[in-house]
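From the methods appendix. Each design record in this collection lists the tokenized structure first, followed by the designed amino acid sequence. Records were kept in a plain field format so they could be parsed without special tools. The example shown here is representative of the layout used throughout.

RECORD:
FOLD TOKENS (669 positions):
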């Protein structure tokens, strides 16, 4: 049989679902005729279908060489390179096709995929829309456009694209899963859970739908305390089932699950107000088992003995931009760790780039930015021979959630950027604040708790000075007494909604200024309905007292801190970055510390300011304190002056830096 006939036989087998069986036949054809470009092309397609990415790339490169200018060969090579995280090379392949064939829909969509992987979501959306103009009936492109829209902050538009894709390909498990993710961003966990379950029915052995469904039991917002208890029990049950499904007896499933780690996380668990240690231990051990199976080289490696004088400290984060994790705690640590004793390496897993990113790149001794090639990032971190690796947060950034499940340094720490225990056996220490932790703080952590001095951070405000806007800019009444409530809405627990009407009954001119969730309008409506019900119980109209503003850019947010009268702290999830920014504007604080460290941030801020009189021990005392700050102008002005005068103690705290240095020196040497 000649090479062409062997190739045709392989192609027929391939088309009927026998990609694995076709591979040796394609290779046999190429052995007989090494110049048979079609065989190289189809070999690449079959290898990619089988998950053999490196071999697929080699085959596609042969096809490109043997078939100069062939669109299918270049598009295939681009897709395989993207699988490997080589986004720039993938982009170049698709651009070559478009230079020859400007209306090639596959190349246009491939370029969109490359842009999406690079974090260029606006460019990706334009490319996907152009591809759909050329081929309107592509469920794959519609689905990818939906993903891009969700990432770009347009989850409502994403839903419509996913639904259009499902109309063309009903029951597609990937699209159903992505639709569930979009509903989650929109704050509708019931619809999200229904989508995940539909995806699970369509693909019973797939990991991603089960993974998404597990965490969808954690609602974004609750109407009652009983709802919290029910959701927590449902999540515990689902987590146990997921953990059992991903047992050590299923290594293939564990490797598949590695792609799901970080895509959905127990982010909302910590907003329920409970001790999350036991649940997080189940989650953390499961994540470590998954990541260790997928990347055994980094599961529990051996580290060479130290030989350098300087200690190497790595900091891995997805937030080297203007974000609370950069402002608290990363920025001060990176800037002020003593370079005579420490080298500080940064690992940036995000895509956003702003003035804080530029500052970060200047401050680190070395920055590695590998957001798309996970294994290459692991290798780079391991090869840097770190002594200590610090994650400012674990629980928000998808890539750091995966990294943290591995052992990339002999000593690994997590800090309070997302204040909950990780449950990971790979995390040795939790870096917290001595002023925030209760006496029994260790009981909330699987890590060893480290109480760093004071607030544990060296914080410098990015903005100070007079506001750039007046109340009229925000539509705020000049005569009202404004209580600023700037936390994310899911930080407000339903059992404390009574706070607002109890204040308003005594101060009729009180207005409570909240900030909308920019993406989840259903969440905004649910929150307003819940708070309005609390006002109705007290014979008041919530519409007369509750103001919901859009999320604000940084300068406008600073202006709100300057224009409001009182910072009204949330209970059981206290403000840290918000309290620091309020203090930087001189805004008087009202605080009721309760529960775990996450409910005691503002308590620590007040302690540094020497303001014990703004801290209420009980809920009734909190109401009285808030009312006094509203009614008593002299008291409020006195607190404002003391907040303004306390900046030297609050900001630029080098004791926190020295404490971190002493901890690192102790555990390394």
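DESIGN:
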């Amino acid at each position: 049989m000649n090479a062409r006939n062997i190739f045709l036989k392989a192609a027929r087998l391939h088309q009927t679902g026998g990609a694995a069986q076709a591979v040796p036949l394609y290779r046999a054809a190429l052995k007989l005729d090494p110049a048979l470009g079609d065989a190289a092309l189809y070999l690449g397609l079959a290898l990619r279908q089988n998950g053999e990415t490196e071999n697929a790339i080699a085959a596609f490169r042969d096809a490109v060489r043997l078939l100069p200018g062939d669109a299918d060969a270049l598009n295939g090579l681009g897709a395989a390179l993207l699988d490997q995280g080589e986004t720039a090379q993938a982009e170049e392949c698709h651009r070559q096709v478009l230079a020859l064939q400007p209306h090639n829909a596959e190349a246009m969509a491939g370029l969109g995929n490359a842009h999406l992987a690079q974090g260029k979501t606006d460019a990706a959306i334009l490319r996907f829309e152009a591809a759909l103009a050329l081929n309107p009936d592509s469920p794959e492109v519609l689905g990818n456009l939906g993903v891009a829209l969700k990432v770009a902050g347009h989850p409502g538009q994403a839903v419509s694209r996913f639904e259009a894709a499902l109309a063309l390909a009903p029951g597609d498990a990937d699209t159903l899963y992505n639709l569930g993710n979009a509903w989650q961003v929109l704050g509708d966990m019931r619809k999200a859970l229904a989508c995940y379950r539909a995806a699970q029915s369509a693909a019973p052995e797939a990991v991603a739908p089960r993974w998404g469904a597990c965490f969808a039991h954690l609602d974004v917002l609750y109407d009652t305390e009983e709802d919290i208890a029910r959701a927590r029990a449902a999540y515990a049950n689902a987590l146990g089932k997921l953990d059992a499904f991903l047992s050590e007896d299923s290594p293939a499933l564990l490797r598949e699950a590695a792609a799901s780690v970080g895509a959905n996380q127990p982010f909302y668990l910590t907003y329920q107000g409970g001790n999350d240690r036991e649940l997080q231990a189940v989650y953390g051990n499961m994540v470590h088992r998954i990541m260790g199976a997928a990347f055994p080289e980094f599961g529990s490696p051996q580290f060479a003995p130290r030989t350098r004088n300087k200690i190497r400290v790595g900091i891995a984060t997805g937030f080297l931009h203007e974000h609370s994790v950069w402002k608290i705690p990363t920025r001060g640590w990176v800037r002020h760790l003593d370079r005579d004793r420490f080298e500080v390496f940064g690992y940036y897993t995000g895509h956003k780039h702003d003035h804080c990113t530029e500052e970060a790149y200047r401050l680190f001794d070395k920055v590695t930015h590998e957001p798309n090639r996970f294994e290459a990032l692991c290798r780079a971190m391991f090869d840097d021979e770190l002594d200590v690796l610090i994650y400012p947060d674990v629980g928000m950034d998808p890539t750091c959630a995966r990294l943290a499940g591995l052992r990339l340094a002999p000593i690994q720490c997590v800090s309070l950027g997302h204040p909950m225990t990780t449950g990971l056996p790979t995390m040795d220490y939790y870096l917290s604040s001595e002023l925030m932790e209760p006496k029994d703080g260790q009981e909330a952590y699987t890590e060893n708790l480290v109480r760093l001095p004071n607030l544990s951070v060296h914080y410098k405000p990015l903005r100070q000075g007079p506001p750039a806007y007046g109340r009229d800019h925000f539509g705020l009444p000049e005569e009202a007494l404004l209580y600023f409530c700037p936390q994310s809405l899911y930080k407000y627990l339903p059992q404390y909604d009574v706070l607002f009407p109890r204040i308003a009954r005594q101060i009729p001119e009180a207005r409570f200024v909240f900030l909308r969730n920019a993406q989840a309008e259903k969440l905004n409506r649910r929150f307003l309905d819940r708070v309005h019900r609390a006002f109705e119980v007290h014979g008041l109209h919530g519409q007369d007292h509750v103001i919901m503003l859009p999320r604000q850019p940084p300068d406008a947010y600073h202006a709100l801190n300057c224009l409001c009268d009182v910072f009204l702290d949330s209970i059981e999830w206290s403000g840290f970055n918000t309290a620091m920014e309020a203090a930087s504007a001189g805004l008087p604080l009202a605080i009721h510390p309760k529960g775990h460290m996450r409910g005691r941030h503002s308590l620590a801020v007040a302690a540094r300011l020497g303001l014990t009189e703004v801290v209420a021990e009980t809920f009734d005392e909190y109401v009285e304190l808030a009312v006094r700050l509203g009614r008593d102008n002299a008291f409020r002005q006195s607190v404002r002056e003391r907040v303004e005068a306390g900046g030297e103690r609050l900001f630029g705290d080098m004791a926190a830096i020295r404490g971190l240095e002493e901890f690192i020196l102790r555990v390394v040497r």
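APPENDIX NOTE: The chain has 30 helices and twelve strands.
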